[in-house]
């Protein structure tokens, strides 16, 4: 069976924890993505994830100033990660259990990629992807 490393999207870009919501939004636009890992400004370790929805709900709709609101202030739940060398079935089980559409992939504590539903749809049988989508949607 495949590993998380084999299906992940490499070249993942982080938004630094001390950058603003406006910085994150610009970066999402430039990269044409809807989510970014948040990495520590000092240690480069992954601290969380920010989505376009987070920016809309927690910054814009809350009346915060996106130019001064730093991403480390966004509410963060328990961060779910995949190990690069774990069997993809384990990664998929994590995504199902935690109802997540994307999962950061780490190797020896460092962010090396991300797996989104689209990555799985290209590398896994349709039945596996369909089951994952259905479980997240429910």
Number of strands: 6
Which percent range describes the beta-strand content?
Answer: 15-25%
Order of helices and strands: HEHEEHEHEEHH
Sum up the overall morphology in one term: globular
Order of strands in the sheet with most strands? 1-2-3
Describe, in plain words, how this protein is organized in 3D:
There is one protein chain. Strand 1, helix 2 and strand 2 form a beta-alpha-beta unit. The relative contact order is 0.21. The protein has 6 helices and 6 strands, in the order αβαββαβαββαα. With 138 residues, it is of the alpha/beta class. The chain has a 3-stranded mixed sheet. The protein has helices at 4-7, 21-31, 52-60, 88-98, 117-123, 126-137; strands at 15-16, 35-39, 46-51, 82-83, 102-107, 110-116. 39% of the residues lie in helices and 20% in strands.
Write the topology of this structure.
Elements: H1 4-7, E1 15-16, H2 21-31, E2 35-39, E3 46-51, H3 52-60, E4 82-83, H4 88-98, E5 102-107, E6 110-116, H5 117-123, H6 126-137
Parallel strand pairs: 1-2, 4-5
Antiparallel strand pairs: 2-3, 5-6
Helix pairs in contact: 4-6
